[in-house]
Structure formats: structure tokens, C-alpha cells
Amino acid sequence: MHIAIEQAKGRDKAGLWGPAARLLLGLSLLLGIAYPLAVTGVAQVLMPHAANGSLIVRDGKVLGSALIGQDFHKAGEFWGRPSATGGSAYNGAGSGGSNLGPSNPALRKVVAERIAVLKAAGPVPAGAIPQDLVTASGSGLDPHISLAAALYQLPRVAQQRKLSEAKLRALIDAHTEHGWFGDNARVNVLRLNMDLPR
User: What parts of the sequence cross the membrane (predicted)?
Assistant: First the structure.
């Protein structure tokens, strides 16, 4: 009796391989090929610019993506939020924050260095330096700075480019984006720097 039961169990297990293999193949085709193709097709139809990386093109040349920050560091440019991606700045393959807490001496040191660089670059307004100019974001790729961070840099960029602060302020205002919830005003650094008078 015991042998008969074991033989029946063996036959039942052998009979499951076919349905399991068919289920694996079917789900692989559905979720690994059909679904991604469908989502890609819908995105290409409804929002092709975003689906292709939100690339910013001028005169046939790709200048960057509106979604990933760039390493601007000249005195006559607006600077973005610092990147903590390691290696080269704004490296998408190394996306991530520094994971240093506010009491960490290494973070204090790097923030102090960034403050010194900001102050040495040119005139700065009185008051506190906006936090996003001296600390990295969680991704290390943030393409935006706060409106306060853009305004903090306004005197330096105006002096370097020999522009009136009023004209530059109007350009910042034209590039200011507002969030859906609350004010949360922010400026895309690449777009702003692209439109600076040459």
C-alpha cells in the first residue's frame, strides 16, 4: 500500500512540469515582452519627449536632459545642487546620496568647503545660504534648485555677465516652476543657463 501511494505521488509531480513550464513561458511573454512593448508604445504616443529622456536640443545638438543635473561651475553660470554620485558629478550609474547625517564631521567639512567656494566665487547677498546649494539630494542627480538658491546666485552671475540684476531676475522668474502642492518654487538649472545672454 505504501509503495502504491509513493508511486502515485511521483506521477502527480511529473504531471505538474508541463503546466508549470507553459505558465512560465506565458508569463514571460506577457510580462517580459508584451507589457513593456505596450507601455513603451503608449508613452511614445502620449508623451514622446518625456519617454525619450526629456532631452534638450539646440541647433541639432543635445545639451542634456531636463531630468538630470549637470556640473556647472563657472562664475557666470548658475550652479546646481551638489552631486554625491561619486567619481564624476551627476553620474546616473552611481545615483545615490552620501548617507551622511547632520552630525557627521565629514558632512560638516564638505558643507564648509562648499560655502567657502560659493563666497569666493563672487558677490553674495546677506543672509543664510540656501541648503540646496551646499547639500546633495537623495539621488545626487537633481536638475533643479530652489528659487531661493537661484536668487542667492543672482548677484554673482549678473556681475560676471555684466547684466542688470533686474533683467536676470526676470529670466529667473520666467524659468520658475511651481509645484502642485504649495508653492515649492524651483528652477531647472540647465534651462536657465541655456537662456542666459551670450
Answer: 20-38
